[in-house]
Known about the structure:
Blueprint: E1 10-12, E2 24-26, E3 60-63, H1 65-69, H2 86-99, E4 107-109, H3 140-150, E5 154-160, E6 163-164, H4 183-186, E7 193-194, E8 200-201, H5 208-224, E9 228-232, H6 248-261, E10 266-269, H7 278-284, E11 287-289, H8 304-308, H9 311-314, E12 327-329, H10 345-357, E13 362-364, H11 373-379, H12 382-389, E14 396-397, E15 404-410, E16 416-422, E17 428-433, E18 439-440, E19 442-447, E20 452-458, E21 460-465, E22 469-477, E23 480-481, E24 484-488, E25 495-497, E26 501-504, E27 512-515, E28 522-530, E29 534-543, E30 548-554, E31 560-564, E32 574-582, E33 585-592, E34 600-607
Parallel strand pairs: 3-4, 3-13, 4-5, 5-9, 9-10, 10-11, 11-12
Antiparallel strand pairs: 1-2, 6-8, 7-8, 14-15, 15-16, 16-22, 17-21, 18-23, 19-20, 19-22, 24-34, 25-28, 26-27, 28-33, 29-32, 29-34, 30-31, 30-33
Helix pairs in contact: 5-6, 6-7, 10-11, 10-12
Amino acid sequence: MRSPSHSVLPARAPSAVGAARAARAVVVLALAVGTATVAPAAHAETLAPTAPGIAAKPYMGWSSWSMQSSKYPGLNPDGDYSYLTEANVLKQADALAGKLKKYGYEYVNIDAGWWRDKAWKPEFDQYARQQADPQRFPRGMKAVADHVHAKGLKAGIYLPVGLEKEAYADGKAPIWNADGCTTADIVHSDLRTTNGWDSAYKIDFSDPCAQKYIDSQARMFADWGYDFLKLDGVGPGSFKSGDNYDNIADVAAWQKAIAATGRPIHLEVSWSLDIGHAADWKKYSNGWRVDTDVECYCNTLVSWENSVDDRFDDTPAWTRHAGPGGWNDLDSLDVGNGAMDGLTKAERQTYATLWAIAKSPLYTGDDLTRLDSYGLSLLTNREVIAVNQGDTPPAHPVTPSDPQQVWAAKNPDGTYTVALFNLADAPASVSADWATLGYTGKAAVRDLWNHENLGTYKNGITQALPAHGSRLFTVTPRGATLTYTGQEAEAAANTLAGNASVADCSACSDGKKIGNLYLGGKLTVNDVVVGKAGVYQVKVAYISGDARSLDVSANGGGATRHKFPSTGDWGTVSIVHVPVTLKAGVNTITFDSGSGYAPDIDRIDVPKSS
């Protein structure tokens, strides 16, 4: 949900994955964007919400951008992005109040364009602050917030980061409540640009006038009665790198300005932010986009490939950063409108499942006046909403990021939230082995989407899933906790081949790891002893700044290639479980990079029974 500026709006490139995600299809004019650089590892910090209670749990609501950006027939009859009007926002607010409010949905968020006319010409007041376009919002933004509040809901608004170029006014516009300050004082003298579209001048916070400008904008929004601000095009991230696009000072200034208003306003930053600065997003905001836009900028709202499916690769590294006060934002949840969404029923359920277990904010971009019965059932399933809104932690992959994968989270009451995903383009069976949850034996299983107790399953559960299908369960263990035999990757008894070598690793269990597993680099863990033959879910502790693959084999047999999710940086260890067939007695397990680049390996832990 990125703001078009000077008639420019970058959109998702069709079927973009991996590095190609930086490519953009341009809606109106061509716009080149760069690729973000890898930043130093972020460390956990205490979250700093704007006010007590803000973002205690992921927010729920509606946002205007999905319909604004779509070319679905009839949505934008007066030109691109013309959907955004006071009448349409109030219509959605009324529908939200009538259909979804009782399930926890409360925010009505107005996205880009509220201060621009249909030709994208902006409105500013005498103090360089955005003002409602009189055609789109004839009664002004306060009247909209008042209507939303009268429905028992909360109102959200949007800005791009920086001083918009059109607001500069030759540097002569005064800053509200800041004697002697003008727009010339708040930006760098060379008028360097910033944000994801270079549509604004970078603010120079070394001058006190700059904070005064942000204060004036925050005061205006508070006086209008807004409860939420989305600050967009923020870097590091948004596919830009370099000092011009470092907006951490802007986000900090906004947090300070919001606090000074005395009004609790949720601050969300967007889009596709640099995970290397996760500590900054956590310190200064209440939520952060972890990926690019979910909208396809096509004849529907979204499509599976553009880019719902990308979230499965991009979310795992961020999981550890989410918690009360600040959440990982996966973008709009467009599952309610059937044909307009552009997805199959299976895809819609899978989309909603990932958002729920990842503890993403649940805000839909659908037309709430036209929800179909299936979409309404997805958006109002109280058991699934409880996973997202309750004290369940964010889930993470417990298996490699293969086409069939399992995500899980251990809940405070000892149960597990377990999701099965088939991301392949054809039907397939997906199995959740209880060993990947750390125990063996029996467990009771409840199907959350279908509100059904499925009974007791021994050692795991297997489900036949359609293409892009999913299941979501609560699993209650009845068996015994597994015990393991651990072996360090760098142990002297192991065998290294190719470029593989021992390296220091402060986050690793013994301070060491095996790195340089690339282009034939290989680690063989020797003397893996088990009491009986069988398939063992071997815990692999690894480090990988991006998603990488390994060929895993035992005893010189055939290898299976698995993709390991990114850990977010090269200083964080994660764990997945890899199924390995072992014989009774002594075994070897080999991790081979093959012709590519593989993750670094810290250690393995093998269950003492299969």
